[in-house]
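Input sequence (141 aa), recorded before submission:
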Amino acid sequence: MENTLPMSPTLKAALLADAIVSGAVAAQQLAFTAPLAELTLLPAALLSGTGLFMVGYTALLLALWRAPRVLPWLIKFIVAGNIGWALACLGLLAGQVVPFNGWGEALLLVQAAGVLMLAGWEALGLRRCEAARPGLRAAAA
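Predicted structure, token format:
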């Protein structure tokens, strides 16, 4: 247990928010793949594939949310993943790798902004976990 940190209320709230948002986006992209693809011109395979990924991601977030302690490397991985998701959204826009229209652009921009906010909140939550760990500051000094 020495490699784990006690869960901070900030991190707990951020993980739950990420799980709720990711679960809702997954449900939307899986339940309405064809209409969403038609509306945004984004490929149906991209929407359904990322929707399936987010189902598993949501399950991971909920498991972490329920845990009394966290592995710092895993939270850092989630933060990095959210940043990567935002960069991928922006990369799709900049590189015009896939077709999209104004609605598709809006969807990608909203997802990029949303995951960056969640990454920041989760990083803050991890810092609060580290600050709450007894002796951590003394060992770092």
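Checked by second reader. The chain has a mean pLDDT of 92.
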